DNA sequence: CGCTAATGTGACAACTTCGTGACAATAACG
DNA sequence: CGTTATTGTCACGAAGTTGTCACATTAGCG
């Protein structure tokens, strides 16, 4: 699973720092901005997965930024959590009306922050359309998360599963090891290219004699999933 | 169409009276209770179609009753309208979070009351007839709120019950811990993902050797309820 | 045929994920 | 108001998974 990016917007550096530490411990990527202007630009450029926004800031207030982002279709989907001081609590409603997905009252524990952040991200993540693919008696069902060959269940590990799913939905095309790492492992991982070979082998082993011919080696390039030849 | 039954819960008899008159003129059946205790019992016994609940009451507050009702699967579907005094308006959010479907601020006109009541009833899902599910001798009956295995009653805790009900009505599908938290615990709860594991374990324990194979671990993903394999 | 680069393969240590029992906090109940 | 359930979290060990390496095997080429 790729790490989610969170943009923290607060004019107080100490608070940003505190939050950043908590989030990094929980394996989130962290971006920071200290005013609404910069924040807006970063939202557009860096496309964070979530916005942690302080309510009160000099100049354009957090609430104003939230409202603006929600109004723009390009950024309307971005989940926003508002940070409010206790005395401002009455404004909760206004905040939620402006489009915030949650609000947290200062002071808060890092635990609470991370928990609510998870919950918001969870709700925001769309579930892609997942259809069963079947090729030559080899069947992969994303819904039940199962793989079977001629009706018999196969025990496929997580990485092999993703690899197979990618192949089955991208047949008849050769991919380099590098491309496979990007697509199956996810962009920002450093893994040796030869590791792909090992997983290909593991996958072939699981598929057994009946189906391993579907995964073909393209010498000097990489691999291909194909029913032909 | 049969008349809908509305349960009014308020400690002030005059207010109940006023509401009762308005509702009866609009052809509703009316029940009354002056405290949360009685109200809870009446909800269970008389199964009203809607609950009109005063926020502030001596003893268990309305909000507390609402929360309790929403937490229990047997009564979770009951639409609730909260009555709040103007000065308590800040608590709106709290009320909605507790599961209320609407709130009305005192003083209100009988007209308004009936209008919103209609609206809520309209929205309220006909609670798709709750049917007993039986799989492999494992039976869950939503009406009596009971679980049995091969005829023998099982002692299932509230959370385990909801989890099992969800699984039995959503077989053959792998769910992540996140999705289970959303579906079984409800969206706005901040709970660690691993907590799901613990409840899965508790559920498996209750199901015993005969049926625990129905709950399968999908490594790297989550869990699945299935009769196969 | 012999050489070389590319790929296949088995082993393995580091790392994740999962199952499990215990525990404290909270809620339900009489 | 004390007693009993229920719940969420944690810590630990077991089980499964991953990336890497060393070495074996193969394909391509002159």
Automatic annotation (TrEMBL), chains A, B:
Compartment(s) of residence: Cytoplasm
UniProt domain Response regulatory: residue ranges: 5-121
SUPFAM superfamilies registered for this protein in UniProt: CheY-like
Domain OmpR/PhoB-type: 130-227
GO molecular function term, any single one: phosphorelay response regulator activity
GO biological process terms held by the UniProt record: phosphate ion transport; regulation of DNA-templated transcription
GO cellular component, one term: cytosol
DNA-binding residues (ranges): 130-227
Keywords recorded for this protein, A-Z: Activator, Cytoplasm, DNA-binding, Phosphate transport, Phosphoprotein, Transcription, Transcription regulation, Transport, Two-component regulatory system
Residue numbers carrying 4-aspartylphosphate: 54
Subcellular location, principal: cytoplasm
Pfam family membership, one: Response_reg
PANTHER family documented for this protein: PHOSPHATE REGULON TRANSCRIPTIONAL REGULATORY PROTEIN PHOB, REGULATOR OF RPOS
Task of the protein: This protein is a positive regulator for the phosphate regulon. Transcription of this operon is positively regulated by PhoB and PhoR when phosphate is limited.
Protein name according to UniProt: Phosphate regulon transcriptional regulatory protein PhoB
Species per Swiss-Prot/TrEMBL record: Chromohalobacter japonicus
